[in-house]
Amino acid sequence: MTGQIVFDPLLPWPVIAVLGVLAVAGVILALWRGLAGWPLRFFAGFVLIAALAQPSFQQEDRAPLSDIVLMVVDTSASQNLSDRLTTTEDAAATLEARLAARPNTEIRRIEVGDGEGDTGTLLMTALSEAMAEEPRGRIAGVFLLSDGRLHDLDRAPSLPAPMHLLMTGREEDWDRRLIVRNAPAFAILGEPVTLTVRVEDDGAAPAADRTQLRISVDGAEPQSLTVPVGEDVELPITLPHGGLNVIQFTVDTAEGELTDRNNTALVQINGVRDRLRVLLVSGEPHAGSRTWRNLLKSDSSVDLVHFTILRPPEKQDGVPVTELSLIAFPTRELFLEKIEDFDLIIFDRYKRRGILPAIYLDNVRNYVEKGGAVLVAAGPDFASADSIYRSPLADILPAEPTARVVEEGFRPTVTDLGHRHPVTAGLLGAETWGRWLRQVEVEPLPDADVVMSGAGDRPLLVLDRVGEGRVALIASDQAWLWSRGFEGGGPQLDLLRRLAHWMMKEPELEEEAIWAEPTGQTMRIIRRTLEDSVGAVTVTRPDGETEEVTLEEVSPGRFEAIYEGPEIGLYRLKEGDQEAVIGLGPSAPKEFEQTIASGEALEPVIDSMRGGVLRLEDGVPTIRAVSAGRPAAGRGWAGITPREAYETMDVTQIPLLPAWLTLLLASAFIVGAWLREGRR
């Protein structure tokens, strides 16, 4: 039970103050004039002014509330290093017992693990959420059991009581870590990209000048080099292929270091071509020539060299071939000296005319066998005696003409194999495609892939691999009808672009491939094939353990599965003769960027409430009660501030100047002053 005087003024305090000043002025005037009743006037004014303030004696029936101590326990990944987790659990049990032994004290334990994704340790977020659930007036102290490495200091709440860091880790701890400072998402094939790598020693590290760094691309045999410790090292790296390149940097584990989890860094860079060089040779002017030119010129990454033979075949006037153009056709330069510079050669309705001698076409054959690409868009000329099939190119072309040209309308159709092939898979709306009006009849080779058919189910689009290169044959010169919207048109642009990219070996259009799309520590494993089924994928984890993952067919030729990686690192995928590597998780997890225990980051917050940073290797501190504003930590002890909070059960108010008493006293003093001054 407690009591105090409270006021409930009838008028605003400024008005009461003005009236009080007037009353005092009246008393002073009476005193100056020598009126004998001035003391009675003073008391009368005092009673009236006090009555306007309505003083009351308030009694409260209070029930004391216990103090609350928040104990935040860090169980994040960095706390699993060395013996930190065991030390933390032992210290938490001891601290909890000591706090529980104090009278009128409650403990709230909050455990904080790794943040979602790669957000690190969110100690302050967890503390803010816990404080939001408790009355601030009851919080007597906060204890953080952690290594001090947190990643949300900006979320630190304002504290009503001291906060202490009971820090794990040891004075002699040291760690070596690998840092990759600039890792681009894309790099140009054939051009070196410079990565900056740094090896740093933190903590009580022994003296070391140099160490070994191993570099591996896509899980291949690593290359080793010696690098200095504590200095930036620039490494030029040339990507070996297009698509995703996984580069792994590894530093040898040193004896005595805290962990090797930060000795490896994964960098994933997509290799892209700078410019795609295409040579387009048109045999004669026709409507489809502009289609090819528009397609290739619409892509800013394509460098196009286009030659068109304008002389009609029916004109025979004996003019030498070398005199048929104003500018000499640089055949020798293009087909002998610089043919290797082109990524793709397209023959659009080209026929033998003596402009390209057999030795040049034989060089085109060699170019394909060594990795080049040739596309033939065939017109009636392909079925004639002057067909380029009657040349050294016959050794690489995927189909042989029968000398028959079908002059009838037909709707191109994707074959069963074509539904599985990446060039034609997923081309929708076949029933609405417009017709083509001419097709050259061909007989495909046994190993060739017929992905589209035309009139009478005759092969229309035939693909094949020759040596290290690729060839394609479109047995019609009518693709331009789709671009003109004839009878509704069709996916001409999409089809020809896919075809060109497949021939230039873009990874996303490989018909036999396995790859993965990572999201955090989860990946979608994708296997594309021309076969009807695939086996289980063997996944090799970073620790060397393997497991089998079964895939399900989600569309013709495409099989997928979702795999949750148990740890961050490099994973290898293998199914049949297809292999791939993928990195899961960030290249440098936040939890292992800095592993040496330190209270430096938390010191500003702790100092604001005069708390302390104490190492658990020196023992769990004893608990003391300290007053607010006093130092709350010292050698071997930590303080909490008792809040003396309470709950009010009942309130009673007794007016000190009830109306009748005010009237009685004020009247008595006023009448007394009048009588005294009147008698005088």
In terms of topology, how is this protein built?
Elements: E1 2-7, H1 13-32, H2 38-53, E2 55-64, E3 67-74, H3 84-100, E4 105-112, H4 123-132, E5 139-146, E6 163-167, E7 174-180, E8 186-188, E9 193-203, E10 210-217, E11 223-228, E12 232-237, E13 243-251, E14 264-272, E15 276-282, H5 287-297, E16 302-308, H6 331-337, E17 344-348, H7 358-369, E18 373-377, E19 399-406, E20 413-414, E21 439-444, E22 449-453, E23 459-466, E24 469-474, H8 480-483, H9 492-503, E25 513-519, E26 522-528, E27 537-540, E28 546-549, E29 552-555, E30 558-564, E31 569-575, E32 578-584, H10 603-608, E33 613-615, E34 622-625, E35 633-634, E36 637-640, E37 646-655, H11 659-679
Parallel strand pairs: 3-4, 3-5, 5-6, 6-33, 8-14, 15-16, 15-17, 17-18, 18-24, 34-36
Antiparallel strand pairs: 1-2, 2-37, 7-9, 9-12, 10-11, 10-13, 13-14, 19-21, 20-22, 22-23, 23-24, 25-26, 26-30, 27-28, 27-31, 29-30, 31-32, 35-36
Helix pairs in contact: 1-2, 2-11, 6-7
